[in-house]
Amino acid sequence: MPQDTVFDLPFTPAVSPDVEGARQRSLQWCRRLDLVRHSVDRQRFLAWDIAGLTAAWNPRATGGRLDLTVDAVVVATFLDDQFDGPSAALPHRVEAACRAFTEVIAAGGDAPSSAIFPGPRRRSSPGSPTACAAR
């Protein structure tokens, strides 16, 4: 799909009032995890506007509820990026990345092999029945 397509909506879309806070908290979270290290990383990350996207998906979410959604999309974005480019053609690298990801899931979000996934994983299932969290 062309990236310059404009959709005119006959209404003003709802967006969480906490969108700017979510942008800043997400950037800080990514910096703590060393996902955003340099000014170029910062510009690229903010251009993606993952917080803006999720604030429109979840217009009633604020604070930690919005942050969980933003962080989950950030995790998916960075995970997906591992399979772009030349690394995708190297089966041993793909297998290692997938193994690290499934170790985190199998360990209930506490595997040491990944710093990015445990936080959103753990925050998304408090109080869930064990079978539900495992699924």
Distance between the termini: 33 Å
Q: Tally the helices: what do you get?
A: 7
N-to-C SSE string, H for helix and E for strand:
HHHHHHH
Shape assignment: globular
CA gyration radius, whole angstroms = 17 Å
Major sheet attributes:
none
Strand content: under 5%
| Helix/strand/pairing category | mainly alpha
Helix content: 55-70%
What features would you describe in this structure?
Helix 1 (19-32) crosses helix 4 (63-81). This protein has seven helices and no strands. It is mainly α. The two termini are 33 Å apart. The longest helix is centred in the middle third of the chain and has 19 residues, at 63-81. 58% of the residues lie in helices and 0% in strands. It has helices at residues 19-32, 39-48, 50-57, 63-81, 91-106, 118-123, 130-134. The radius of gyration is 17 Å and the shape is globular.
Keywords:
single chain, 135 residues, mainly alpha
SSE arrangement:
Elements: H1 19-32, H2 39-48, H3 50-57, H4 63-81, H5 91-106, H6 118-123, H7 130-134
Helix pairs in contact: 1-3, 1-4, 3-4
Question: What's this, in brief?
Answer:
The protein has 135 residues and is an all-alpha fold.
